[in-house]
Amino acid sequence: MPLTVETHDRDVEFSAGSTIHRFSLLLRELTSMKRPLGVTVIAIATLLGAALLAIGSFAFFFIAVLAVSGGDGGDPVSASIAGMGVAGGFSLLVLAGVTVCIAIGVLRLREWARVVSIAAIGAGILSTILSVLTFAGHPVLPVVPMVFGHVALIAAAVWMLAYLARPNIKQAFRTATLIDRLVGLTG
User: Fold this and answer.
1) C-alpha closest to that of 31 among 187, 184, 172
2) CA 133, CA 123: separation in Å to the nearest integer?
3) Which of 79, 100, 114, 160 has its CB surrounded by the most CB atoms within 10 Å?
4) Helix H segments across 70-166?
5) Other residues' Cβ atoms within 10 Å of the Cβ of residue 88
């Protein structure tokens, strides 16, 4: 049974078949959108960060094993170092897992991943600035490489923030979220 809707200039007739057909055309058009290249770059950079966190966690576990298996393994200081190594290793491993989840969310154009990425990048920029201010008088590395590394890190982070805030990128994430809701993949 067709449904007739009166408009200002003409009557428009809708039937269940034509509405479903229009909906399927819209869905096909929306799903044919490609993931922007910059989003893929950000996701790969995030996965590389997760890999570095995982390597760091294994380094902490290695230190814990060395502290316990050394000649003075029963010493309270060695036990403390081992405990800190295990705690640090697990903390970095959890952060690596969370980072992988965010990277997958970014690759799948999930809006929550874009928002979490923006927050994490902002926190990273603030941490980098605090690191520069903290070690300004006490360089751990030679000054030129340290400054260059911090400036490069902040520049990359600012680019990621600006890219994720672009209207067309926001729209890509929102469209993917809308498609998921339309086909019932998310709540």
Assistant:
1) 172
2) 15
3) 114
4) 76-107, 111-134, 143-164
5) 17
Q: Using one digit for the tens of pLDDT, what is the confidence trace for 119-172?
A: 999 999 999 999 888 877 777 778 788 889 889 999 999 999 999 999 999 999
- DSSP code of 36? P
Does an H or E element contain 186, and which? none
Model confidence pLDDT, tens digit, residues 38-68: 999 999 999 999 999 999 999 999 999 888 8
> How many Å apart are CA 74 and CA 179, to the nearest integer?
59
**What 3-state DSSP class applies to 4?**
strand
DSSP state of 139: -
Q: Which long-range contacts (CB under 8 A, 24 or more apart) does 20-23 make?
A: none
